[in-house]
Amino acid sequence: MANVIKLRKGLDINLQGKAEEKKIQLKSNGKYALVPDDFEGITPKVVVKEGDKVKAGDALFVNKQYPEVKFASPVSGTVREVVRGERRKVLCVKVDADAQQEFVDFGKKDVTKLSGEQVVNALLEAGLFGYINQLPYAVSTNPSVMPKAIFVSALRDKPLAADFQYEVKGQEQDFVTGIQALSKIAKTYLGLGIQPDFQTVIRQLGIDKYAELNIFDGPCPAGNVGVQVNNVDPVNKGEVVWTIGDPTVVLFIGRLFNTGKVNLTRTVALCGSEVKSPAYVDMLVGEELSTLLSNSYDASKSVRIINGNVLTGKPTTKEGYLGAHTSEITVIPEGDQADEFLGWILPRFKQFSVNRSYFSWLQNPWFVSKKKQYALDARIKGGERHMIMSGEYDKVLPMDIYGEYLIKAIIAGDIDRQEALGIYEVSPEDFALAEFVDSSKLELQRIVREGLNILRKENA
């Protein structure tokens, strides 16, 4: 039996442009790049040079602190360029793909006959281990410390999020194998949403033999793996849990054991109010976005292209590359061409408001089952100001922590206070909604990330 956990705090933002359950076919331009910044907390050391030939599965760079943690090339081809920034920071490693793809053969493996150590070694060898994160610090994990548990979230509930139930169709056995492999390492928890049909599929696959199922009934951010950890088995000082907030990573792991090859294909939602025909597309991690985004929106308009979702994604361009953990490419209005007569005095019937500042809330009463969809732009609509202790963070943060006090402790640099207020349990994405509703316009995700980085250095 699955545990049902009801969450009342949170906020669902219903945006225009959700992807339809259909796939569009693309022909890649053959340009790929693996970006170290997609793997939080690592210091990359490049192990290839320009002109080298690589196969899909060969390492492009490793974690300098833990050299056994490799990061695999998504394609076979020729290393075109190692791009560096200030102080020779590695920005990305570019690869031009071969017309005929070659894969490193790591050998098929029967997961039932493997130990936890053998599973970890297989993931390290194939360059997939770095896709697993950890709490505390919300960084790419390392193999030197075994976790007390592993948490996987198969619930995507952020605005315009890609539907994992749609993505996993036809790949069910890979998902089972991936969960089974993780369960060999430590006790595994799988977080699901309230969709009964997906729960039925999971039980029919027998996944409950390998993982404890938890059903999260509540608004966004119930799908955040950090929220699930907090409500199931919180992290205390000195403890480590491994987390997979991107369920496609489980498919990567399952494919490795079932085929013996590294296959970093993922189903991505092209979505947003500016997209002409929102739909899904199969892409490889690191694939250039120009093919996907050409003719997909009106180029004469000023738009914001986001590598990810609107809450936690990063701004990008057509020349950008699909992120390692990205399941959506979102296109929304930039908002720099907006011309609002009388500004805030207008009643605003078409704009979204959390605190009923606009009259639009009257068009979306609680008894209407189909919510009104909004086309929000990228404007902040206000400048940074003093922090207001109004409890607005707590309304959208379904965790047993005092969010506003924790943010103040991080800004003040009070490490003892941060520890007492539960910083080991949080990740920046947990504060994404709080950042959205914050009347002080603070960059909460950046503040939390900087606080976690400082704490990690202090405890190293």
What can you see in these coordinates?
Helix 1 (116-126) crosses helix 3 and helix 3 (172-185) crosses helix 6. The protein is 22% helix and 19% strand. The chain has 11 helices and 19 strands. It is globular. The chain is of the alpha/beta class and 460 residues long. It has helices at 116-126, 164-167, 172-185, 196-204, 225-232, 248-259, 290-293, 403-412, 415-420, 432-437, 444-459; strands at 3-6, 31-34, 44-46, 53-54, 59-63, 70-72, 77-84, 90-97, 133-135, 139-140, 149-153, 188-192, 212-217, 241-244, 265-271, 279-284, 303-307, 314-316, 328-333. The model has no long low-confidence stretch (mean pLDDT 93). A 7-stranded mixed beta sheet has the order 1-13-12-11-14-9-10. It has a 5-stranded mixed beta sheet with strand order 16-15-19-17-18, with no helix packed on it.
